[in-house]
Amino acid sequence: MERRVRVRFAPSPTGPLHMGGVRTALYNYLFARQHGGDFILRIEDTDSQRFVPGAEAYILESLKWCGITIDEGVNEGGPHAPYRQSERREIYLKYALDLVAAGQAYYAFDTPAELDALRAECEARGETFSYNHAVRETLATSLRLTPDEVQTRIDRGDQWVIRFRMPAGEEVHMHDLIRGDVTVNTATLDDKVLYKSADSLPTYHLANIVDDHLMEITHVIRGEEWLPSLPLHYLLYRAFGWSDTQPAFAHLPLLLKPTGKGKLSKRDGDKMGFPVFPLAWTSPEGETAHGYREDGYFAEAFVNMLALLGWNPGTEQEIFSMDQLIAQFSLERVGKSGARFNPEKARWFNAQYLRHKDNNELTALFLPILAGHGVTADPQTVARIVGLLKERATFVRDLWDLSWFFFRAPEEYDAKGVQKFWKGDNPARLTELRSLLAGLDDFTATALEPAVHDWVVTNGYSMGQVMNTFRLTMVGQSSGPAIFDICEIIGRDETLARIDRALAQLGQGA
Ligand code: GLU
After folding, report:
1. Count of domains in the chain?
2. What is the residue with the minimal CA distance to atom 10 of ligand 1?
């Protein structure tokens, strides 16, 4: 029988979620939704030393912002609750002990000082110490000590760990949905710690495999950095006798720096001025990092951009809604090699989403920015202005620089523009234009344009000279949206007042 698809995103709350982590969550989510399955959020917080307060809340908030909805998780609950590993701690010991009983794992009593000494000894010989098949029987382990000795040590409160007994030289044949077949010989692998008595907690490897099994996970989709752990995970499933229901694995390619060389890191963002985190973050120590949300990106644009960092739809299409991504995503089309992050492209996506947004929606986002500039304006007028300018903006905040002259008269005039156009007959033409505008019945852009055009042509004036001079008086600079739209929106009185002001300030010209 086909099993119901169940995937999980299993972050460790060790800091803010990197955009690569968000991509992992997104691909899991798309896969779950496409297959009508479940998306589970599990918090892997068994490494108490790396725990960072606030990180879990940050992760949850990031997923919410992206529109990634969770079926089972720390807040949602579910049939396998709790979903925070620190609250499941009593589950894991039994499984570790089962492996010891089956001869697949063993107790190790080496103290940190003893291990340091072993490491130092190896280093002195120019070697690196590895806790593996070659040494385990010579160390303080249950493989060498008698059962009585082991029990005595445990009873007297010695600290111990349980380590996996990695086979000495076995070819492990694995399959990855993105990378195909992978074979690794265990000769080079060490005996990973599965459980620690010091804090009565499992390590990542044990908790992860036990939970994926108990939570009936069918597909593990995660970052490439976990690929080296795959042989151990395969062998753990086998040791538990769970190989039949073991999940399928897919390891996603790394996100690379904009240069294409090396992994995208937090510092790249600081250096090159782009966020690597979905939301702004302040660490408990007060360190801050930029976030896409606070930097003005739309969640949909961020998600769209991320979806294409590693997955290729096989067509020219670049703009995808979440529903389209759910319909079209496939692991087969995820690349094996790293995906180069392009901050320019991220901005491009935002501009695309901005221009397709409804004017009223943009107005609601722009009004507070206007208020910040001391402007209160009628939302309907703002919606019109936004409609005229949205194709030129990347972020909502850009709209102010593009539109301020709708809300206040220019106080200065661009020097180059003045030099170029405030000369000869132009100021006199402007006085004539003022009379024309003052006398027109209809002050809409559609009426203004032909009226002014006719006047220019009838008098044999230069359209370029007249219109550029006029624009300078209206906006103080040589660029901006169509001038008659500006006139209509600011109205006749303001239009005339701006002409008067320019004439007063710049004089009648030479
Ligand atoms: N807790 C691991 C992490 O932080 C999960 C890895 C996995 O998905 O197996 O990435």
Report:
1. 2
2. 11
- Ligand 1 centre to CA of 11 (Å) is 5
- Strand 105-108 versus strand 161-164 pairing type: antiparallel
Q: Residues lining ligand 1, judged by CB closer than 6 Å?
A: 10-12, 44, 204, 208, 222, 226
Catalytic residue among 196, 266, 345, 420: 266
Q: For 106-157, what is each residue's pLDDT tens digit?
A: 999 999 999 999 999 999 999 999 999 999 999 999 999 999 999 999 999 9
Residues 6 or more apart from 429 whose CB is under 8 A from it? 461, 465, 466, 469
Find tokens 């620690």 and name the residue: 196
Site to probe by mutation for ligand 1, drawn from 204, 215, 220, 254 as the one with most ligand atoms within 8 Å of Cβ, is 204
Orientation of helix 483-490 relative to helix 445-459, angle to 10°: 130
Domain CATH number, residue 426: 1.10.10.350
In a domain, residue 488? The reply is: yes
CATH number of the domain residue 178 falls in: 3.90.800.10
CB neighbour list of residue 187: distance below 8 Å, 6 or more residues apart = 133, 168, 169
Question: pLDDT tens-digit profile of 9-63?
Answer: 999 999 999 999 999 999 999 999 999 999 999 999 999 889 999 999 999 999 9
Annotation marks residue 257 as catalytic:
no
- Of all atoms in ligand 1, which is nearest to the CA of residue 11? 4
Contact residues for 109 (Cβ-Cβ < 8 A; gap 6+): 140, 141, 145, 153, 158, 159, 160
* Closest ligand 1 atom to Cα of 44: 1
Residue 248 lies in a domain: yes
Give residue-wise pLDDT tens across range 338-367. 999 999 999 999 999 999 999 999 999 999
- The confidence score (pLDDT) of residue 120 equals 96
Q: What is the pLDDT of residue 161?
A: 98
Q: Which residue range is the domain that position 115 belongs to?
A: 88-252
Query: Does 396 reside within a domain?
Result: no
| Domain end among 199, 233, 252 | 252
Instruction: Please report which confidence band the pLDDT of residue 266 belongs to, taking 50, 70 and 90 as the band edges.
Output: confident
In a domain, 433, yes or no: yes
